[in-house]
């Protein structure tokens, strides 16, 4: 069920099946601030890395964002995060970034 995140949409019955627990959600938000923020800004309007604000992500596919975060982007400063974030956690973060 881990790829449920890729089937965008609230109508997907499994969209919220694998939410991180509240404690982990807090850790993930801290990570977004401190780790991602150092390159993407705080709020993440862009810096060394591109903007991760909802309007910047609107035309970007979940699976490509997920791949960028999990595996990094070779040849750029974007590092892989798969050692720190599961696929589900990454999916959750992407949904958070999409919220205004
Ligand atoms: C060391 C700097 C750095 C850090 C830290 C970093 N990023 Fe990035 N990120 C980049 C750069 C540079 C790119 C653009 C890569 C490219 O040119 O394709 C990028 C690209 C991305 C993309 C793809 C955006 C798009 O428009 O396609 C996402 C999503 C992303 N980062 C999320 C994150 C998240 C989430 C974190 C924290 C867990 C993070 N990044 C931490 C530098 C960073």
TrEMBL record:
Residue ranges constituting the Cytochrome c domain according to the UniProt record: 20-100
InterPro entries linked: Cyt_c-like_dom (IPR009056), Cyt_c-like_dom_sf (IPR036909)
SUPFAM superfamilies the UniProt entry points to: Cytochrome c
Segment forming the signal sequence: 1-17
Keywords from the UniProt entry: Heme, Iron, Metal-binding, Signal
Keyword Transcription: no
Xref: Pfam families: Cytochrome_CBB3
Keyword flag Metal-binding: yes
The name this protein goes by in its record: Cytochrome c
Originating species: Methylomonas albis
């Amino acid at each position: 069920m881990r790829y449920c995140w890729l089937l965008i949409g609230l109508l997907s019955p499994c969209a919220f099946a694998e939410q991180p627990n509240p404690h982990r959600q807090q850790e993930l938000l801290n990570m977004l601030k401190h780790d991602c923020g150092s390159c993407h800004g705080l709020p993440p309007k862009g810096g060394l890395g591109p903007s991760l604000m909802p309007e910047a992500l609107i035309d970007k596919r979940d699976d490509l964002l997920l791949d960028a975060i999990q595996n990094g982007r070779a040849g750029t400063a974007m590092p892989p995060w798969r050692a720190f974030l599961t696929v589900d956690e990454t999916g959750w973060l992407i949904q958070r970034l999409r919220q205004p």
